[in-house]
Amino acid sequence: MVNKNLSIVTKKGEYSSDLAFYRFIIDSIPTGIITVTADRKITGFNPWAEKLTGYSLEEALGQSCGTILKGAMCHDNCPLLTVLSGHKPVSLATSSIVNKWGETIPIRISTAGLFDDKGALIGGVEAFQDISLLKTLEREKENIISMVAHDMKSSLTIIGGFALRLLKKGRQVDEKKVKKYLGIIKDESGKLESLVNDFLEFSRLQTGKLKLNFSATSLDKELMELMDSYQLKASQSGIKIVLQNEKELPIIEADARQLRRVFTNLLDNAIKFSKGKGTITISTNETTEEVIIKMRDEGIGIKYDQLEYIFDTFHQGQTGKETKGFGLGLAAVKTIMEGHGGKVFVESQLGRGSVFTLILPKIQKIDDGEKIQALW
């Protein structure tokens, strides 16, 4: 329970001080926070600061903040020094620190002065967050854009080269070679179209403008057609696909084309990352309000520390094997499912495979707020 002065009641019914309450808040915030005196000696060091730097509160207290953080800006551009010198009340920056074990950690940092009741500067506070994942995604994005530019240039060069050959030699090229050249041009044009579609899709994902066209959709039909179209591809990789669908599923309102993209993205990944002669099992179930579809593979699995990021745009898991793609497939899966009012989850064990669970509502809400009942 909290009183008017933001004090909290302990289990014994005693009121703690405002200071204790604020300390409770600071210790709970998932951000590294340190406080310093006017000469930049550390007076406060919350648990997240301990976690990020590797130093304990006892090790940090009384030390210069530069000695503990070893930040990239500590010597020439110290944000705390800027604040304490009175040049700026608050300073925001992106920098890096070096933890106790010598590892460099990119951070986003905010600093502000601490003042007493009379307005006199008595110290400063610094808050910093680990942005390693953000930096990794930025690098992946840059690498992927570079890859796409390279692939597009490669296809355009091939198309231009064979087109020029046909134009220059004209009738000197026999019919067999003409067909061969035109076939190559067609194939490379298809690659270009695929690249452009990927990035158009990325643009829609980023702006939230992925449009869904709902209509009566038979999930049984979609899954059966998926099985038929993938059996040959899977068998060529030594993989068996099994559909466990004991009960007929209801016809629901959905965008069938986009749901097919969800199914094919997941099945492509399952085949890509499966070990030879494994089995991919697609099973279905339903509750009163939802349809549940699970896709289980016996592949290489996903590292535990990668699970929370695999639906991020441009994220490509560290699988130890070379794969093609731009990290857009699973991001599209999540966006399409959320557009249907559904959800997607993943469970995985490294070396034992993964299970993707799709949950689709039987009832869709349309723009005017009315509900469309699932058709039986």
Structure description:
It is extended, with a radius of gyration of 29 Å. By secondary structure, the protein is an alpha+beta fold. Mean pLDDT is 79; it is low at 1-16, 319-323 and 367-376. The relative contact order is 0.07. A hairpin with a 5-residue loop joins strand 4 (104-115) and strand 5. Strands 2-1-5-4-3 form a five-stranded antiparallel beta sheet. Helices cover 40% and strands 24% of the residues. The protein folds into three domains: 31-130, PAS domain (Beta-Lactamase), CATH 3.30.450.20; 135-207, Orthogonal Bundle (Helix Hairpins), CATH 1.10.287; 215-372, Heat Shock Protein 90.
Strand arrangement across the biggest beta sheet: 2-1-5-4-3
Total strands: the figure is 14
The tally of structural domains comes to 3
**Average of pLDDT:** 79
Ranges where pLDDT stays below 50 over 5 or more residues in a row are 1-16, 319-323, 367-376
The helical percent reads 25-40%
Supply the number of helical segments.
10
H and E string: HEEHHHHEEEHHEHEEHEEHEEEE
Report the major sheet.
5 strands, antiparallel
Rounded Rg = 29 Å
CATH class of the largest domain, please? Answer: Alpha Beta
**Oligomeric description of these chains:** single chain
- State the CATH superfamily name of the largest domain: Histidine kinase-like ATPase, C-terminal domain
| Proportion of residues in β-strands | 15-25%
Structural class: alpha+beta
Distance separating the two termini: 50 Å
In the CATH hierarchy, the architecture of the largest domain is 2-Layer Sandwich
Overall 3D form? extended
Can you tell me the CATH topology of the largest domain? Heat Shock Protein 90
